[in-house]
Amino acid sequence: MIDEQEALDLAADWADISQGLRKDLGQQLHAQWIKPIQLGSFCKETGTLDLYLPTEFSANWVADRFADRLSLAWKIARPDVRHVRVSVLPGRRAMQGLRLGRDEGTRRAANDSVPAQPGDALGLGAAELGGIGQAPIGLDPSLTFASFVTGAANVLASNAAQRMAAVETPQFAPLYLKAATGQGKTHLLHAIGHAYLAAHPRARIFYCSAERFMVEFVQALRQNQTIEFKARLRGFDLLLVDDIQFIIGKASAQEELLYTIDALLAEGKRLVFAADRAPQALDGVEQRLLSRLSMGLVADIQPADIELRRAILEHRLARFSPTHVPADVVEFLARTINRNVRELVGGLNKLIAYAQLTGQAVSLQLAEEQLTDILSANRRRITIDEIQRTVCQFYRVDRTEMASKRRARAVVRPRQVAMYLAKVLTPRSYPEIGRKFGGRDHSTVIHAVRLIEDLRTRDADMDGDVRSLLRQLES
Fold first, then answer.
1. Can you list the domains of the chain with their CATH numbers?
2. Which residues line the annotated binding site?
3. Where, by residue number, does ATP bind (predicted)?
4. Which residues are annotated as a binding site for ATP?
5. Which pTM does this prediction carry?
6. Cα gap 173→171, rounded to integer Å
7. Predicted confidence (pLDDT) per residue in 32-53, tens digit
8. In angstroms, rounded to a whole number, what is the distance separating the alpha carbons of residues 232 and 451?
């Protein structure tokens, strides 16, 4: 077992290692083989770190092709890691999780008094979720509705997910969660699983990735186990399938998934799918399956805006971190790491872990030094010309007024706002900014920046204008 602090440190290191592998291997290979890896236990005595994958197939594939690279990366990140062991997640042993015994004529609830067999790992009742660590079906105990921060970007998906897990039968089926990488769709899948089991203690659920579904279906075909596969799969009360885009082009797997959806819907069961694109954008998907995926509710999770990113950081700090993180650092991270929530939280974890391990206080300077890779990948180069154009459109003033000598209030205030944004969003110095505004002195720019900062604290309308402009420029 590893304590909470060590788990935090390992997670921070893994975020860095995973990001490096994504650059080396490319997005597709990383998403298919590296992203599903889950951290296991770390034995300090032997220096052995366990890495888990959901299936025997994927564990063997990663062990054969990436074991040396993973081992080297971990040794560089943590010298105390001397061995890396890749294996299947305990309790999720390939096809056994989907087989019916020959004498098992009827489906039984996972928490019945009959002792669970090793092959029952994928059918889980709420009683089994009480333990510490990863649940046998792969539900992460930390990914619940309580830990999911809701904002304008994800409120529809969050509400729909909670409705899907409630005692009352939802008015839509299936639920399809669409979001780009790292925006929270997998979090909601896990949260649905936890909440559904809490509301339906005797229910059975099945959680998997589309890749795992395909691999195990092919194994069933090869082993003449398709009847058992279908019977077991259709015996679940809730089906959760992640990364459905990876089922593209697999005709036999698509057909089996189609029949499974029809069978479960006919019995009033609940189904949730997640993908990085809308159903209509899934190339290579059979039309009948496409119509099933689209027939319920398609809930889109938009990229987190600045308010939601800030709320996620504050929520995580309040729940998990004993380390003090200044407000300006939180604001800096929320404003700068804007590609996805996973990178945002990973950056925070890394910063806290580094501060705790080195005894340094968290500061803006430390954040800029230690999060160089993440920050550079997220920074979109915003130019002063772009800022001036956006501000002029917002306030409906002519672009030439940015460099003019006119001092009418209707012109001066937008010009000052543009100077303020230029300082906040670009690395330009005060003199450089001044030159872009008609050759003004640097003291004029400093005055404008301080004035707008002050007005934002006293004038709600001004603060609203600046926030709106920031959203436009950072989107």
1. 1-92 (3.30.300.180), 137-301 (3.40.50.300), 306-379 (1.10.8.60), 384-474 (1.10.1750.10)
2. 182, 184-186
3. 182, 184-186
4. 182, 184-186
5. 0.57
6. 7
7. 888 889 888 888 888 899 999 8
8. 67
